[in-house]
Amino acid sequence: MSKDILKLTCRELRDSIAKGEIKSSEAVSAVFERIEKYDGQIGAYLNTYKNDALGKAKEVDGKISKGKSIGVLAGVPIAVKDVLCTTFGTTTCGSKILENFHSPYNATVIEKLLAADAVIIGKTNLDEFAMGSSTENSGLKKTVNPWDKSRVPGGSSGGSAAAVAAKMCFAALGSDTGGSIRQPASFCGITGLKPTYGRVSRYGLVAYGSSLDQIGPLTASVGDCALLLSVIAGHDERDSTSVDEKMAPVYDFSAEIDEPLKNLKIAVVPQLFEGADSEVVNAVKGAIDIYKKLGAEIIEIKMPHFEYAIAAYYLIATAEASSNLARYDGVHYGHRTKNPADYIEVYTKSRNEAFGQEVKRRIMLGTYALSSGYYDAYYLKALKVRNLIRGDFTAAFQKADCVIMPTSPTTAFKIGEKTADPLQMYLSDVYTIAVNLAGVPAISIPCGFDKNNLPIGLQIIASAFQEEKLLRIARMFESQTDFHKRRPEL
Amino acid sequence: MGQKKIDIEQVRQVAKLARLALSDAEIVQFAVQLSAILEYVEKLNQLDTSKVEPLAHCLPINNCLRTDEIKQSLGTEKTLANAPQKDEQFFLVPKILEEPGGL
Amino acid sequence: MTNIDYKVIVGLEIHVQLATRTKMFCGCELIFAAEPNSRVCPVCLGLPGALPVMNKQAVEFAILTALSLNCKVAEFTKWDRKSYYYPDLPKNYQISQYDLPIGSTGFIEIPLPDGKVKKIRIRRVHLEEDAGKNIHSEGNFSQVDLNRAGTPLLEIVTEPDINSAEEVRLLAIELQRIVRFLGVSEADMQKGHMRFEPNVNLHIKKDNNEYKTPITEIKNLNSFKALEKSVAFEAQRQLAEFLDSGKVMQSGNKKTLGWDDIREVTVLQREKEEAHDYRYFPDPDLVPVVVNKKWLVEIKTKLCELPLTMQNRFVSEYGLSDYDAGVLTADKAAAEFFDNTVKAGGDAKRICNLVTQTGLKIANEKNCKVSQLGISPQKLAELAKMVEAGQISATASVTIFEKMTQSESAPQQIAESLNLLQKSDEGELEKIVDEVIAANPQAVEDAKSGDKKSKKANGFLMGQVMQKTKGTANPQVVAKILSSKLNKGI
How far is CA A350 from the centre of its chain? Predict the structure, then answer.
């Protein structure tokens, strides 16, 4: 029985629960069976809340048996990246500095999940403060790729991606600052959406690069992505950077998900295929062929500033991060060094002891980029290049409905392979970063496997607030293939 | 290869600004790594941005304003709940002897 | 002997706490002396994930103040983060405005004792959030209270156009009057609502050369008196130092001094202006503020007549002395109450006396505004008219004024019930005068004598009449009758 449950999409599960065919508590138990069996090897979760989850499931089951109205995610077990504040458990951001931190409030997306009657089963591992592309930077736990346990799950939402891929939840939330949803989705063979900047409230998302961060879903299918986006999207008066519904209306993005787009025009950027592994390029070309068969027109474009995205990103994101992470100082909450000689040492030692290397490196880089004498040369220059990059996208969307490219130049790499050289790690974000700089939405969907049976991701990028179109384009491909249905043997 | 983009003394200065008590080994390592990254970001200078406006934010919105209405505060107990060191009503830090640099 | 001439040069940096109900970026209530750390929320505690949303009222107060200081109001302004670490600053950055202040290049006019007005240029006016408070109590620890953290502050920076300690005080008083008139601040220095930091140096002419002494910034000024004294002290100290050492201004030798209120001296706080590197950059959590014409027009409707304009009008239109006009316009409620009373009829000088001598005294005792005493301007005007018409004496008017604060009755009724109406009936008074003349032949003779004794005798006779009428005789009428009777007799 439980095996069958785990094959369901979120929508199917919710509908079965609503009809009384399956109990939410059964779904939650099935998921925890998997977690108990496999998460010891995978390490996707930092914390799970079995009793609370079963409690919530029973509450939902009770509502249904009493005929009460239920939310669109009623009874569906969902995992959230531990960078989202929750009043239950801890909110650690994968960092020792917040290892014992209890948030007194819930992130807006958490409130929205709960209001939709979702069952939050646990919080997933990540690169510390979402800084990384492999989840190896977690200060608290190691997470491996369910397809190959010697490889990384991608990052920074590696725990969320691994949990979905290993069927240890039905869907998960992650955050994406430079590819942190799309790249792990690609590495783990699942679907991951980074919404338009401003689409989803960031209130309660622990900030890394505030002008780039966005929360999004990681799911087993495009339809589930659409469903979850409908739940978490929308204006929030607590987030000044969340847009109002006039600009970005919220409705059920999954309602017409199976409607293919007519006269679809897809842009590809040939220059960008140069840097990717041949197997990745072939898979993406295969995807393009499928779109051609579906009647799409493929046009070739240039994005002359795309290659500058990594350089701009690592100045802007780290500058913002250096300021965002200043608050972790051992004064009001979080780790405090033992026996500081004076209050200055509370800062310097607490921070140095509890931050990991990558976080320190980015704080250092960002601090330098903003410091007197370097601001114009680094930070300001990067903001100007950011404008040029956005211009590339604006031009592209005047010619086409979307741009297609790989999500990552490679499939999942080996654990430890890139940790020695941070720059090499940064360069692996080559396809995802520009999207965050431009603030546009993008999705990664499975489009093939390499010779090692590792998943390959296809990235589709649309213009701002065109998520519905983006999802339908993604669904067109998904409906013709079964890559998304494959799951690793554990 | 020219000179290192950032030397050990600069790394020390930046660490002071960032309030990180880096070890000597970390300082040396960061000097190397940050130099490599800064070397890489030099490529931005290939672009002429003299006529380009900086883009701090992608959003076409402004004036997100709140009415001046009182909302519930956390209260003293919850405010202090995560404090590493506190007394009944206050956060505690080792005695501050100097003046702030700000305001 | 060398020929020395010097000029004091002062620029002021002023922080004004705005009288909003809630903080700058969150809904925590602003109240004085609340339980420590009781008015704190995730936003002003700088918790992970919390985001600021600006208070519209604070922005409008800032614009209102900028307008009244004749500033150019920025059409486009934004928020910047100013980074420095201090335990009362939970995020370790302050949200402020750096390169685009809300107001710039204005001026304030200050009335000088000689009746002239001096213009002091305003460099900029910007909004920012306040820090909390560090309390350096006994023992090895400092206590941190965050109730004040996030309070909206207006920073006003003048050009160094101020040339004496007295001018500094006058500017402070004028600014206090302005912000109180506008209702944007309680402006109570003791409560820290207004904080002044003078930057002082001297331009010294010695033997046809000009020297500039090093600039010092003075902090810890908690009263107008301290402000004035500290500048006067500092000017003398700098002169003495120059004469002693010849030290002149160089870049980087700006010192920060603290004012010792007890010893009345400035004390060195920081020798050299530390190489602060605040790493300002645009706050990515907040969107820009655009002040369009419509909004500006709306805000301008809230501008009132400013105190100095009103003061000058009271002098020119109502013939008040500059002193009286100054006393009235020290408080907007009193000034408007006075103005309305004059407009309701009655002699301005008489009303001024009633308001300043009686009204303000009672209001002070009751700890309220003169306009809150329960007396309408119309009723007070009636009272003033009764004095002018000779119906009551000036002394009686005070008694009636006091009664009016306790009763709804008209002044006429109160005068009647207290038997305070003056006897002005000439026929009736003539009889009494005749009686007094008849009873006091010696005094009459003295009065008629025209020498030294006459004045005293006249007073005596007058007093007798008053005694006989129990003080209700109109002195003017009695004097007239008496004088005609005595003259007739010659």
Answer: 29
